[in-house]
């Protein structure tokens, strides 16, 4: 934990902060109430200003850099040199045991950039009965509030805490951008490259942070390049796999609007049952649907109805559970990110190699009483907390943490910046089953 300043120094920092923060034009003067009820959730767009227009191809294929909502972050104010090196003032942390091996710690800080509010889950997977898993909607292309995801029957019993997960296609399909594997349901979605930095649990129950790409093969056509599984879009030139877990066909939305040089092939029972140059929408997927773009479409065009086709997919390293973020914050105890100017609400997950504990942190933001954090600040905080590796998860209005209260119910412990709970694509679930 960070060192504290005396109260007088902390008060001085806060006073100067209000001046510098005001100069940057940071919005917001009030703290809205937060509803934990799923009925208060927004639509899958997750915005308060109405439904955004269809996202352009560039965003679909590169993804957001900070948050799924795409809102511009507050700019970190320029700090006078006299104050730049001072440690923050900090309130005494409040700690509560959520379950054996699961602890919630909350505290506030203030430095020359402004105030911040933190909530930390410390999870010890070595404690009998404690586990972490992927929490997602029944359909990969579906969204729900975090309480709904954590309380769903398919999330399994014993949920004591959770946090939001991967970035997602907030303006269109609602699907997560990266890797997802559920202990019970197996591999749900993934990409061969481009969005594979992930938190995972291996077969021995050990947590890890690193690259977890999708691997896939077609036995009869080893040259086929499979790039995606149940993703919001197929990589240009590649072939994407869509299964019943995706839901219904999404037409040209998964080709980023591309209508020429595309093809879909439906495989059922190990045989090609349909091949078309036109993509359908709203049809239930009964089998394995292959969608190609450019060279990928050309490769699929060589297949004929009735041909034998064995399609397999897995995640590299064979983890039991996995979920992606967008950037590794810390690797081997070293900060890996460089952005120290844009502040957002943030969610991060890290691993303490010395203790084996998993550290899940949320920082409230877009509030006068909590400014959020830059990527560099988030990484530095994770190191201070003991993380040797850490990963940035979705932030902005998606940043949400829940824990089980004394009444046995899950409650929100932070303040989501939208003022209500956003519908998200997935999350990380903490379970305790004695």
TrEMBL record:
It comes from the Bacteria. Residues 54-64 have a biased composition (Basic and acidic residues). Residues 254-430 form the Phosphodiester glycosidase domain. Residues 22-53 have a biased composition (Low complexity). Residues 22-77 are annotated as: Disordered. Residues 1-25 form the signal peptide. This is Phosphodiester glycosidase family protein. It comes from Nocardioides abyssi.
């Amino acid at each position: 934990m960070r060192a504290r300043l005396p109260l007088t120094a902390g008060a001085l920092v806060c006073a100067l902060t209000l001046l510098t923060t005001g100069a940057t034009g940071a919005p917001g003067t009030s703290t809205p109430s937060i509803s934990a009820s799923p009925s208060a959730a927004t639509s899958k767009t997750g915005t308060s200003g109405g439904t955004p227009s269809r996202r352009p191809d560039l965003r679909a294929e590169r993804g957001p850099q900070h948050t799924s909502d795409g809102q511009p972050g507050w700019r970190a104010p320029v700090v006078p040199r006299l104050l730049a090196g001072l440690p923050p003032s900090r309130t005494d942390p409040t700690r509560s045991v959520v379950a054996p091996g699961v602890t919630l710690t909350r505290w506030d800080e203030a430095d020359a950039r402004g105030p911040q509010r933190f909530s930390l889950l410390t999870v010890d997977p070595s404690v009998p009965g404690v586990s972490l898993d992927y929490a997602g909607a029944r359909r990969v292309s579906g969204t729900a509030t975090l309480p709904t995801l954590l309380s769903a029957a398919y999330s399994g019993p014993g949920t004591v805490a959770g946090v939001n997960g991967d970035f997602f296609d907030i303006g269109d399909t609602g699907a997560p951008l990266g890797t997802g594997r559920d202990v019970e349901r197996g591999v749900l979605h993934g990409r061969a490259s481009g969005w594979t930095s992930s938190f995972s649990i291996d077969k021995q129950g050990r947590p890890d942070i690193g690259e977890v790409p999708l691997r896939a093969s077609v036995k009869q056509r080893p040259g086929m390049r499979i790039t995606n599984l149940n993703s919001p879009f197929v990589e240009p030139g590649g072939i994407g796999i869509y299964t019943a877990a995706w839901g219904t066909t999404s037409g040209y939305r998964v080709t980023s609007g591309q209508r020429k040089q595309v093809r879909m092939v439906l495989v059922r029972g190990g045989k090609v049952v349909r091949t078309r140059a036109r993509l359908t929408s709203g049809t239930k997927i009964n089998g394995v649907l292959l969608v190609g773009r450019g060279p990928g479409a050309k490769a699929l065009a060589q297949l004929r109805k009735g041909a034998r086709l064995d399609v397999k997919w897995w995640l590299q390293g064979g983890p039991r559970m996995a979920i992606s973020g967008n950037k590794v914050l810390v690797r081997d105890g070293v900060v890996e990110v460089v952005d120290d100017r844009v502040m957002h609400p943030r969610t991060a997950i890290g691993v303490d190699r010395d203790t084996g504990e998993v550290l899940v942190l949320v920082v409230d933001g877009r509030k006068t009483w909590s400014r959020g954090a830059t990527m560099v600040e988030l990484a530095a905080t994770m190191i201070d907390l003991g993380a040797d590796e850490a990963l940035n998860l979705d932030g902005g209005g998606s940043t949400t943490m829940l824990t089980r209260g004394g009444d046995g119910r899950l409650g929100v412990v932070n303040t989501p910046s939208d003022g209500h709970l956003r519908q998200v694509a997935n999350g990380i679930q903490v379970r305790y089953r004695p």
